[in-house]
Amino acid sequence: VTLDVEAVRAAYPALSDGAAYLDGAAGTQVPRTVIDAIAAAYASGLGNVGGAFPASARSAAIVTACRQAVADLVGGTPEGVVLGPNMTTITYKMALALGATWEPGDEIVVSRLDHDANVRPWVQAAERAEVTVRWAEVDAATGTLPVEQYGELVGERTRLVAVTAASNVIGTRPEVRAIADRAHAVGALVYVDGVHWTPHGPVDVGELGADFYVTSAYKWSGPHIGCLVADPTLLARVHPPKLVPSPDEVPWRFEWGTPPFADFAGVVAAVDHLASLDPEAAAGGATSRRERLLASMASVEAHESALFASLISALDSMEHVTPYGPASRRAPTAFFNVDGWPPDEVAAHLARRGVNVWSGDNYAYELVTALGLRERGGAVRAGVVHYNDEADVARLVDAVAELA
Ligand SMILES: Cc1ncc(COP(=O)(O)O)c(C=O)c1O
After folding, report:
1. CA-to-CA distance for 377 and 358, rounded, in angstroms?
2. Pairing between strand 333-338 and 81-84?
3. Which of 77, 211, 394, 399 is least enclosed by beta carbons within 10 angstroms?
4. Which atom of ligand 1 is nearest to the CA of 193?
């Protein structure tokens, strides 16, 4: 079903500032329902959880609803949803906990395609545990992460394979399932960075073969919250450092200190917003939120693919522009350079034209080096999300054309 983009855009107050928001890969805007849900949570009266009074029970109910919403979004189990401030913090915590179980001579596999948040926490944990780090390389010519290399990289001593579901700059979607199968054959755990991919299409953590799947709500129309999804029986075997009096139950023991309860209400509203994007799904009998999400995210994927096709073909056709990234199997995110222009200056020019994009390495540190773009200052990143339209793409294309 085609998205009603005009109606979608009207739901986002921030879009009325007139800019073309092609910076969704760094964080999306939020719909009015998310803003209202956060305000309503505060207005209702909240308390810390575990108290005998109603405001405390309201916070506890919000936490439960938030875990369920995130589980619905990615096909997980609510009891296995860990909430935190962002993906980076959660991943450092998991690296601390998992790394403490590694022994000298063990191995882990990370990739040069990944955002540094799914690289450095593991590399640093490996250094502490005297564990060997093996690197999956990117084919710079095609922008792919060849899956065959995992046959060599993964062995009997492999404890963990960390890989992204999609590159946050060139959009590449590695064959995560095949990588996970290889890892599982030797008993290794698979930690999938779903931060970039989650807003762009249906997700099923089981189908991906992810033992751990991380995603950040602020990339899919929610507040600044990170989430990790795993099987609760796996989490029960993992012991992060924690305060003595804080709960030891899963998933609570992974959550340090007092969380932003009102923001969790915003996460629920964001998931409900995504589930509503295909109104025909509800009318057609897809009644569970999970089913509505699958239908809605398929519509999102179709809408974004069409927009991205026109964006990338326009960039491809400009002689003064060099786009990077694979020809297929990619998230709708463009990464490109303009002849004679440092990426930061391109971004500044686009900003003057009311087009919001990012430049640099966007923390895809290893990838930008592997692509040979470090000296050049990286590249310009422009991506589409479900609330973008043809007018946004046209403004980007026109402004880039001016730089010829
Ligand atoms: C692919 C990817 N992984 C991880 C991160 C880090 O996420 P967070 O800001 O939630 O720590 C980002 C943020 O841009 C990202 O795009």
Report:
1. 12
2. unpaired
3. 394
4. 3
Q: 216: Cβ below 6 Å to ligand 1?
A: yes
Q: Determine whether the shortest distance from the Cβ of 120 to ligand 1 is under 6 A.
A: no
Could you tell me the sign of the dihedral formed by the alpha carbons of 265, 16, 215, 73, in that order? positive
pLDDT digits (tens, 9 = 90+) for 261-316: 999 999 999 999 999 999 888 788 878 999 999 999 999 999 999 999 999 999 99
Please give the distance, rounded to the nearest whole angstrom, from the Cα atom of residue 103 to the centre of ligand 1. Answer: 28
Q: Tell how far the Cα of 72 is from the centroid of ligand 1, in angstroms.
A: 21
Which amino acid, one-letter code, is at 63? Answer: V
Give, to the nearest 10 degrees, the angle between helix 343-352 and helix 390-401: 120
- Whether 121 contacts 92, CB under 8 Å: yes
Please work out whether the CB of residue 88 comes within 6 Å of at least one atom of ligand 1.
yes
- Give this prediction's pTM: 0.98
CA angle 212, 218, 223 (to 5 degrees): 110
